[in-house]
Amino acid sequence: MIPSKYEEDELQTLCNEPREGKQMISAATSSDTELNEVDRAAAQFRVQPDARPAEVDAERLYCKLSAMLHDVMPNFEIAAKAEVAAEINRLKIAKRAVILGHNYMEPALFHSIPDFVGDSLELCRLAKQTDQEIIVFCGVRFMAETAKVLNPHKLVLIPSERAGCSLAAGVTAADVRRLKEQFPGVPVVTYVNTYADVKAESDVCCTSSNAAAVVESLHSETVIFLPDEFLAQNVARETGREIIFPTRDPKKLNGTDLNYSLIGWRGRCEVHEKFSVEDIANVRKQFPDAVILAHPECRPEVVAAADYSGSTTAMARYVEQTNAPRYLLLTECSMGDNIAAENPQKEMLRLCSVRCPHMNQITLEDTLESLRHDRFVVDIPADVLARAARAVERMIAIG
Q1: Pairwise CA distance, residues 11 & 231, whole Å
Q2: Which residue segments constitute the domains of the chain, with CATH numbers given?
Q3: If you ran DSSP here, which 8-state letter would residue 31 be given?
Q4: What percent of the chain has pLDDT over 90?
Q5: Angle, helix 382-398 to helix 141-150, in steps of 10 degrees
Q6: I need a surface site. Which of 4, 153, 252, 264 has the fewest CB within 10 A?
Q7: Radius of gyration of the chain (CA)
């Protein structure tokens, strides 16, 4: 237990004191007669051999987080977060749950409680592989729905009912059905950033990391690609296709003889659409040696002006595996903080005026309540779930 009113100097010396007793619980932990009941359960608990260790001691967790996040958060806040995170880890072990954390989670959560972290595609695969009966998804609603689609008989929880997505909300199942009536026989690819009923109307799903490969795998002259406008344009450029954006009124496209092979939709991520070519130009003026990475949900001209474009995991891997004087990530704010914490020897520039308001709904405090009370349960009608599963499974098979 961390005293709630530690003075700053006490917090700084805490991690330098010798520690006895409790250990970090990992696949390498051996039996220890001094471990208490929860710690003994933790020593036997395995999500998967490659899962992150689950730290159940608040002081040890504080020391770990403080070392990583001292440039991001004040120590007293890290101490408070460590208390909550340690309790989550103990409860997770007791209930035999697995926690999946998206790369956009705020740093204290991201580095403390998930058994696995990653982008949408990685977490889809991990959700399918887990043996645990409870899945807590620290991400937005469509991600938790995808976990449920892949694990129909498991209890899937999302810590906040408010964790939606502007992009997912921008297209409905009825919209997809109307498009299929307009363009009969044309296969439908939907971005994984959609709700289950939209996936159920689709032939296959995709993520930002495999979108072009999914489109090419269909071997179709024409493809419907939903709902992200900019991702569709970036895929069209990568695959050499012409793109059109139909209106919601089918009559306006009657008799059209436009030359196209990709049919898009006017959906946008409210975070990534904010980045501009002017932002990149201004950064290059001040930091000409900066390597700029852009998410594929950014505008095509922004992606073209950047040095690298990839999924969140691809960007994290790029920073880890390269050696540039400094880096700038054009994506959600917390992603940059998380990468900076994992790569302290590398300089990360900040160009971030907004966090995703939906990802920001997922907190350590709500995650603790979610585990305590089995809330909020993700349910999908059986017929929708079965049809959505085919599209998601096909995406995973493509890789």
Answers
A1: 45
A2: 8-163+360-373 (3.40.50.10800), 168-268 (3.40.50.10800), 272-355 (3.40.50.10800)
A3: P
A4: 73
A5: 90
A6: 153
A7: 22
Q: How far apart are CA 13 and CA 60, in angstroms?
A: 13
Q: Integer distance in angstroms from the first to the last C-alpha of the chain?
A: 44
pLDDT higher than 60, residue 189: yes
The candidate with the shortest Cα–Cα distance to 228, out of 296, 164, 293, is 296
10 Å CB burial of residue 280 (0-12, 13-18, 19+) is buried
User: With a threshold of 0.85, does the pTM exceed it?
Assistant: yes
Q: What is the pLDDT of residues 336-379, one digit of tens each?
A: 899 999 999 999 997 776 689 999 999 999 999 999 999 999 99
One-letter amino acid for residue 360 of the chain: N
- Directed axis angle between helix 382-398 and helix 120-129, to 10°? 110
Least Cα distance to 144 among 393, 382, 377, 396 occurs for 377
Contacts of residue 286, Cβ cutoff 8 Å, sequence gap at least 6: none
Please answer whether residues 332 and 271 qualify as being in contact, where contact means their C-beta atoms are separated by less than 8 angstroms.
Answer: yes
